[in-house]
Amino acid sequence: MATDMSYANATMDNGLSQMVNSHLKGVGRLFYIHSPKDTMFERQEDVPNFFRQSWPYFLIFMVLEHIVLRLKGHKGIRLNDGITSISHGIFQECGRLVWRGAESYLYTWIYTNFRIVELPWDHTLTWYAAAIGVDFCYYWMHRACHEIHILWAQHQVHHTSEDFNMGVGIRQSVMQGWCGFIFYLPLALAIPPAQFVMHHQFSYLYMFWIHTEAIKSLGPLEYILNTPSHHRVHHGSNKYCLDVNYGGVLIIWDRIFGTFKPEIEKMEIVYGLIYNQPSFNPLYLQTFYTGYVVDKFQRFTTVGDKLRAIFWGPSWEPGTPRLRAEDDKVEILSRDKYDVHLPFWCNLYLVAHYAVVFYGFFDLTDRYMGMTPISVLIFVFYIIASLTIIGMVFDNSKYAPILEALRCSALAFFTRSLSSTNPGLGTTLQFFYVISAMFWCLHTLKLLEIKKIKAE
């Protein structure tokens, strides 16, 4: 008996130790703290999806950041803006589920057929070469996304928030991977695909936590690393903040290529786009600028001007330089943030429905490889439609009530299928959606109304 108890205690201690070690590694990944020997993979398909595994840490860090900001006397993360940022991150992940890694196929093909050197996949030098190479290419990809209009149309999603917090770190375009992959292709001449895919993830994980106002300075590390201070400047709409600090993990590329600007103390940074879009609708924020590029393309008559409207800078007009001159940049010193103040019960309703969609998203990520492509597309459509309508409710859009009534009615019908496999969950969700649909039907008939409350 004593032996059995000792064995059970040892097993429990070992399991606890492994769990703690696993979480420490998970947190370390956000800061690019890795052991090369533990993160060497021969095949691309063996590389874990570290980004998806890090979602719990994203949410925990956002909560901690909110608490720290509140303790410092700031407002913290706004519910509507924070949820919109998370929705963009889910949009991007849904895109990855649909693409199934297709954007990296060309990289693998070039490496297989045209590599000029055979670097050993399990050597430490290859690991560090991949890390530096990915970061160098990220700098040029990021810079191009600000200097080429059609690429900016996708990347601008990341800059749409008027706040600067860790949620913005996952506010990404669903097309970002397709827009940026070409800038990494030179690495395929030497860097094994598995190393590229892995460090590409590590780079974006690092950039999550530098989106914060809770950390002012990292001291001497400011000279080498991209830090919250440097990245605050990059996200600013102030004149001195425009078109600078493109680095991912390292800031040395900006120092080398002349695009570095330090943060100016005691000058408030105004975040968001120069001409900001007042909306919490993630689908609109993902797509509106592409429509603007199309309109600009159609406005010109000559082939040259049409091409320049797409491939030159966002502010280009006939007779002006490819990129806007310093004197032509708009100076923004302050502005009111877009906000819609809904009643507490409405915010509670939106959080509850968002939690269900969030759960559905992670259920999809666990099962999508065993699903047919059409099933994945239907599930992705449900997630994107739900997040879009929730964003419209946050905007208090006049179209939101009828769309939410239709969404809840449809889901009340479809959740009937869960009753056979999971009766408790199926019945609960069905009741949840029926009650919600009834409420929005009454709202649509003007029998109930959402009244905005005044800002404090």
Automatic annotation (TrEMBL):
Instruction: Please list the GO biological process terms of this entry.
Output: lipid biosynthetic process; membrane lipid metabolic process
Q: Where are its TM segments located?
A: 342-362, 374-394, 431-448
EC number(s) reported in the record: 1.14.16.5
What are the entry keywords? Answer: Endoplasmic reticulum, Iron, Lipid metabolism, Membrane, Monooxygenase, Oxidoreductase, Transmembrane, Transmembrane helix
Q: Which GO terms describe its cellular component?
A: endoplasmic reticulum membrane
Cellular compartments annotated: Endoplasmic reticulum membrane
Spell out the protein name for this chain: Alkylglycerol monooxygenase
